[in-house]
Amino acid sequence: SSGINAEYGSVLLFHDRDGETSAERLDDFGKAARAYHEKATFVEMDMANSYVKMFTNYFSVKASDLPIVFVIDTASKQKDNIAKTKDISESGIAQLIEDFRADTAETSAPQKEAGDELPADWEARPVVYLTKDNFATYVFSGERAVLVMVHRESCPHCKSLRPIWEELAEKYKDHPSLKIAELKSGNVAQIKGLEVTRVPTILFYPMDATGKHDAAVEFEGSRTLAGLEEFIVQQTASRDEL
User: Fold this and answer.
1) Gap between the Cα atoms of 102 and 37, Å rounded
2) Environment class of residue 199 by beta-carbon count within 10 Å: exposed (0-12), middle (13-18) or buried (19+)?
């Protein structure tokens, strides 16, 4: 069953804040938020904000759709975990939430990035480029430990992490037994055994992973250069891999 999970559910209002009816719209959205704040997080998505525009592909939002409200449960294991309504009144938003919680709302899947083809120079840069075609053979070769960032092009947090990831890779590029790599999230569904529920996700695969995805350790610390380096030291010290 889908339905809003209190910890992960979000209700998103995509609109133009400079519009003539924005004050009334925000008032209704606020009333719905006060009524359902224990069930979901309410977020205003002003389309004039460049950060917000990064999410338009994921939700398939066009200017002609505005204003529109989406409900999404990122904890759902189902692919169809998004519902929407053009009725942005307090009662319309409440109805969407109730229908979503009851599993009676019409739902759809977010727009996922497609998997990509393996480029000829995939190993030429400090950040090793992984796809569905070379992930298993590279990560499970037993020749090296691999730290992988699973990301999506449209994800703002992934974009923020990119320069740090490049710097980390540059630092370890000549290391004989540890490689820094990246994998676009569109490849995940085509890699047997790999499960990723959010991006960015950072996974450390030890040299002895040998085909076992459950041998990976997920990084959950601060996404800074120092935080990542500390994580590498912690994961390799107990295995004597570096």
Assistant:
1) 17
2) buried
Distance CA 43, CA 74 (A): 14
| SS3 category, 107 | strand
| Residue that the structure tokens 């459950």 belong to | 214
The reply to whether the predicted model has a pTM over 0.70 is: no
What angle do the packed helices 225-237 and 156-172 form, to 10 degrees? 60
Residue with tokens 């449960």: 73
Question: Each residue of 50-84: pLDDT tens digit?
Answer: 888 778 877 888 889 999 999 998 666 566 688 99
Q: How many CA atoms are closer than 13 Å to the CA of 213, on its beta-carbon side?
A: 9
Torsional class of 135: left (φ above 0), alpha (ψ -120 to 50), beta (otherwise): alpha
Among the residues of the chain, which ranges form H helices? 22-36, 50-53, 56-59, 90-101, 135-139, 156-172, 225-237
